[in-house]
Amino acid sequence: MKIGNREFEFGKKVYVMGILNVTPDSFSDGGQFFQAEQAVRQAQQMIADGADLIDIGGESTRPGHTQISDEEEIERVVPVIRLIKERFEIPVSIDTYKGNVARAALEAGADLLNDIWGFLYDEDMAVLASEHDVAVCLMHNREAAVYDELVPDVIKDLEKCLAIAEKHGVKREKIILDPGIGFGKTYEQNLEIMNHLEQICGMGYPVLLGASRKSMIGLTLDLPVTEREEGTIATSVIGAMKGCDFVRVHNVRANVRALKMTEAIRKGGICDGQD
What we know:
A hairpin with a 2-residue loop joins strand 1 and strand 2 (about 5). The protein is an alpha/beta fold. It has an 8-stranded parallel beta sheet. Strands 1-2 form a two-stranded antiparallel ribbon. The relative contact order is 0.13. The chain has a single domain, classed as Dihydropteroate synthase-like (TIM Barrel, Alpha-Beta Barrel). It is globular. Helix 1 (about 35-50) packs across helix 2, helix 2 (about 70-85) packs parallel to helix 3 (about 100-110) and helix 3 (about 100-110) packs parallel to helix 4. The chain is built from 10 helices and 10 strands. Helices cover about 45% and strands about 15% of the residues.
């Protein structure tokens, strides 16, 4: 799969997507990178730490978040996308479910549309993806966490997203799926999805896991959002072992190191050097 100027070969490694929230109210790092230059410095640090992509979000999607206007979201993300694309050679993802924001982001240089509603909220997202021939990440989501059979129902919901993509001409080889940890699911349901990620991976598309610092970790370990790194790393390692191709994380360095160790163990040999 080509995202921006980079080829991603699946099965060889798990790629790390660094989270860059340019919002004042995101659950984990809200306000830290709200100014464009602060955001660019954070992107530079994530690249140095080994990020393969940068995911930029301009609206918090935490539980109970307040939706902002398209115009405000565009004002937050477009300057940051432009600066990162000017200064660095790294694919940039835009985290939005709104067609107007996606259009502005693509014009600014974004390489991937990361849609937390998987084209269900705004089908213009699919139209734009097809017109610009860019990669997309379709995340599972529901208004209410009510299921007959959790994993089969999640797969059926994702198939609806895939049908919208196909209807509007989005190429199969441009699609990534995300099981939607923390969205439309209870604590127990999130754990069940984590335990059955191989079934999502079995759908035949690359899979992105976004569990970083989520409430599932906080509830399990009884820890605030600032102390969930070990729990996040555990989800990344589980994701790698279950067949995921991407992890979306806040702490790039720690997860890159953990995944490198995981890959060495899975391959049965050490990459560089010996003790």
